[in-house]
């Protein structure tokens, strides 16, 4: 990062401190969310009826672990502690997923369908959250952070 970019970043952080704090809180929120998703994926993998779904959930779990590591890199680059802040939205999605899966017959395509739909809801939340934080990172000229968010 060049001197002009560092200066620009400092000016923006001071001028838009509430936005920068929102950004940091959003990262903490996503860090919690990703860890909750990781636990949910492990549970659902064992409940999946088809091997294809179990394999897909395994792949998704590996991706989630990469997301967690990227978030830790982002925190480190910002000299912030990698700290999870409970994400109420994700907590609600996880609770809904667990409840609806319990209501389905074991070893059934119905259960697999519910697991898939629950996973899609989680993905949509993540897409919206990462996309929003990406735009804020770009606003603050945090190019490496933006690159990590875009990959995620």
What does this structure look like?
The protein has 152 residues and is mostly helical. It has helices spanning 3-15, 17-47, 51-77, 88-102, 109-139, 143-151. Helix 2 runs antiparallel to helix 3 (51-77), helix 3 (51-77) runs antiparallel to helix 6 and helix 5 runs antiparallel to helix 6 (143-151). The radius of gyration is 18 Å and the shape is elongated. The mean pLDDT is 92.
| Class per helix and strand makeup | mainly alpha
Q: List the total number of helices.
A: 6
| Overall average residue pLDDT | 92
**Ends distance:** 22 Å
Tell me the fraction of residues in β-strands, as a range: under 5%
Helix content: over 70%
Q: Unreliable runs, pLDDT <50, ≥5 residues? A: none
- Describe the largest sheet: none
Backbone CA Rg:
18 Å
User: Globular, elongated, flat, extended or rod-shaped: what is the shape?
Assistant: elongated
DSSP E strands, number: 0
Notable traits:
mainly alpha, 6 helices
Topology record:
Elements: H1 3-15, H2 17-47, H3 51-77, H4 88-102, H5 109-139, H6 143-151
Provide a concise account of the structure shown.
By secondary structure, the protein is mainly alpha-helical. It is built from six helices and no strands. The radius of gyration is 18 Å and the shape is elongated.
